[in-house]
Each structure stands twice: as structure tokens, then as C-alpha cells.
Amino acid sequence: MLNTIRENIEQRLGIKRATKPSKKGEVIEGITEFSGRFKNWRGNEKLNNYPFVTNTYAPFTPMRRALPMLNLALISSAGAYIDGTDAFDLDTKDGDINFREIPVEVEAEDMLYSAKGYDAEAVKSDRNSLIPIERLLEYAENGVIGKLNNVWWSLSSHIPNAALVANELAPRIAERLASYEVQAALLVPASRLCHQTLGIVAREIERQGIPTMLISVDRAITDKIRPPRTAYYTGNIGETVGKPNWKEYQLRVLDESLRWIETLDQPTSRKLAVDLETETEQDRGEK
Q: How far apart are CA 99 and CA 25, in angstroms?
């Protein structure tokens, strides 16, 4: 009876609730088939004959809070870890499905990277190219977002076993986000393979009722995985948020991506308008 009354009130107010997980919203559709193909994969860093996940549908959670009131979570798969702590294990066939919760106060010079599948030179030069802490803190100071959550999440750059991501890693990440009461999550993949990893994580986070945005520089992979919201452009692997030490480039990528979290009303993959403006700046010798 109470549920019926609540549903009637929400309908009159125009409130849309996230639907319960269904076959159309599974994190990996045909996960048993993937596991069989993965078992026969011989494993290699270049991902030769790797059985990428393919999904048809995408879960979706509508945004219920405006950006200036948002507690935003940041998830990066650059393989970052604090100097003096254990690195991610890059040698196992399955991949390392642990994650690190890192306070935003930790400085860039205190970070090291377990990099596989991407060149870490850009993120070492300017972590904002993959971990846009400074850019997002600037957005919080200027009222573009409410705040950046006080910890961010670091994942390995090389996790081939997508089934483990779906069954173990993604639910744990979603649980941690919920415990911090975040209202949306921005996901930044570093390598080609972690476009798949974070796409799967995004799907699980949305299944648990938190809107996401994944920034992609490899549309072919993210179109297969079907994260709920994807902002893509022709960028470089290892520089997903933009070229290192080029603040305006990074802000351009982030600005449109973040605003789409609020405005998109269905699962969407949309191209950012960063390329043309950047080419114009380069022609002028601006950076």
C-alpha cells in the first residue's frame, strides 16, 4: 500500500526512479560465453585475439541533482598508487582487481604508476591528463560542481578478466561510492583495455542508482561495452582528459562531459567538440 502511494506521488511530481536490474541491464551480457572465450585466450599485452565484451543494452540512472549541488566521484584506471605502498600486479593473466582510495590532498609528486597498455609519461608530467584533480577542484571553487569527493578511486590499467571486474571489482566500487553519498561519477580510462574495465564499472554503478560519465578516446571499444553515458573524441591513449600541461584543452574535455551527465536522458555515446577548437589553437600557436 505504501509503495503504491509513493509511486503515485512520484508520478505526479515527475520523478523517475532507476529501474531494477534486468537482463537488458546486466553488467556483462553473456558473461558465461565471455568466460569461455577468455579461458582460451593466451594472454598478451597487445591484446591479440582478446575476446572483448559486447553488450546490446545499457542500464541508465537519471540525474536528480544539478551540477552545482553535486558530490562528484572520480575513478581513474591509470594504475596510480602512493609512493611507499604496493604497486598493482600487472603480471597475472586475470589482472589485479584491487583498488586504492586516495585522498585528494595527496600531491602529484607522491604518486607512482603501474602502467601497462599506455605510456605513463603524460600522467607523470601532468596527472590531470588522466587524473584531473586540480581541474575538478577548480570547478568546485567556481561553483561548476558542488564538490569533488574527498577521496578518489584508482584502478589497475590492465585487468583482462572482465568477468572478475563485473562480479567482484565493480560491485565493491559501487558500494564505496554509495558509502560516500556521491551523486555522480566521472570515469577516466588510461589504456585500451581499461576502456572496457571502466565501461563495466560504469554499468554497475548505474545499476546501483548513481549516474556516470565515461570519457573515451577509443570509441570502438566503448561502443562494444556500452557504458550508460560516454563522451568521446579523437584523443591519445594515456591522455584521456587532454594533453599534459595544456589546461584549456583539459577544461574543454571536462566541461562538456560533466554537463552531459545532467542533460542526457537516455544511454548515449556522444562526440565532444574538442577537436576543431584545439586545431584552431594550435594553428595560432596557442596552448
A: 24
